[in-house]
Amino acid sequence: MFRFTTAGESHGPALLAIVEGVPAGLEIDGEQIDAELRRRQGGYGRGGRMRIESDRAEILSGVRHGQALGSPITLQVRNRDWENWTVAMSAAPLDSPADDETLRRVFFPRPGHADLVGILKYDRHDARDILERASARETTSRVAAGAVAKQLLRAVGIEIGSHVVMLGGIEAKLPDELPADLNAAVEPSPVRTLDPDAEERMIDAIDEAKKNGDTLGGVFEVVVSGVPIGLGSHVSWDRKLDGRLAGALMSIQAIKGVEIGMGFEAGARPGSRVHDSIVAGEHGYGRSANAAGGLEGGITTGLPIVLRAVMKPISTLMQPLPTVDLRTGERGDAVRERSDVCALPAAGVVGEAMVAIVLAEAVLEKFGGDSITELRRNIDGYLAQIAGRQFLPAR
Ligand code: EPS
């Protein structure tokens, strides 16, 4: 079984990810993990923290001489900023009392963040106890784990990319066909978009928001190619891959909605203008289009999986929103923690990681295998079976 968990506070000593179920013998390249971490740190609109950190993963377990052992893989990314937080975030009780400023306590919860609901639910009195874990810094662990999942998927021919399709209301004009290597095409863009014209306006919008002490969100798209027919299942609600992918994307900080394929637009059209016709092609069954976004009945169709997620604007505003002082109930201004004006380009990278994790899980569920050799053999056997199944008369 493929599974992962993360741990770590934003200003604690480190962020951790434990990934279990990676088949033995899979080549694990630490450089590729670090490259994904670097991608997550980028994008126009990031704040001061990204100038402090240069995230790198140390592999603490589960890999020997560059190959997975089949045992849990532990990844650690140290927080450089920790040296400024050793007192405020000390795990041990302090020897002597310290003032609120030294402890960096937070009494003005931010609307939109987990601050208020978190302290009420967990019975805390300092919102720092909540925000340290609610912070999107946690996505560092997800991207590290996702980079391992990506290496597994790449070994079986599945590739994942992403791009920004809308930022702060500015929509990117998309080409009829996406570039084969989506990430290579968008990486030079500071906002990770394919439309140079929109890129300029998106950058201006971020500058404007920054000037106004405001923040911006938007929509990113994740595209997966090389997916075999038959991942996921229609038989039970929790095995439907569309639901699992949507849930994984929705779990990313600040994500408020997910679309698959044509998405919400499908609700405005008649069925005749939504569903992809089934056609008989040279290589077997095919589709006239991919409005379904690569998923029907919770099962992959063999066409690219296309998912979109909307990110709300970050809830830390330099022009703060109204809130209430947790100590007195008096009206106040929400805390102004250092933050980003826009983290949408990075959110796309996190989206890729979450999609990779769910797909790695789905691949191993369907094909199993303790070793990469066994996994490949199982996949090859299934693909041969599917190929032989094309156009057979009904039994
Ligand atoms: C982030 C690190 C954080 C923020 C941001 C994402 O660093 P710090 O809080 O030290 O400035 O820049 O976190 C949030 C947007 C949030 O709401 O918590 C990161 O590593 O991505």
Brief digest:
The chain has helices at residues 30-41, 49-52, 100-103, 115-122, 128-134, 139-155, 182-186, 196-211, 241-250, 344-367, 372-389; strands spanning 3-7, 14-20, 57-61, 63-64, 67-68, 73-78, 159-167, 170-171, 218-225, 255-260, 278-281, 284-287, 295-296, 299-300, 305-311, 322-324, 331-333. It is α+β, with helices and mostly antiparallel strands.
Descriptive terms for the model:
five-stranded antiparallel sheet, 395 residues, binds ligand EPS, 17 strands, 19% strand, 32% helix, Chorismate synthase, AroC fold, alpha+beta
Task: Give a structural overview.
This protein is of the alpha+beta class and 395 residues long. The chain has a single domain, classed as Chorismate synthase, AroC fold (4-Layer Sandwich), CATH 3.60.150.10. Helix content is 32%, strand content 19%. The strands form six sheets. A five-stranded antiparallel sheet has the order 8-7-9-15-10. The longest helix is centred in the last third of the chain and has 24 residues. The model has no long low-confidence stretch (mean pLDDT 96). Bound molecules: ligand EPS. The site of ligand EPS has 16 residues, from helix 6.
What is the secondary structure topology, with strand pairs?
Elements: E1 3-7, E2 14-20, H1 30-41, H2 49-52, E3 57-61, E4 63-64, E5 67-68, E6 73-78, H3 100-103, H4 115-122, H5 128-134, H6 139-155, E7 159-167, E8 170-171, H7 182-186, H8 196-211, E9 218-225, H9 241-250, E10 255-260, E11 278-281, E12 284-287, E13 295-296, E14 299-300, E15 305-311, E16 322-324, E17 331-333, H10 344-367, H11 372-389
Helix pairs in contact: 1-6, 1-10, 4-5, 6-10, 9-10
This protein binds ligand EPS.
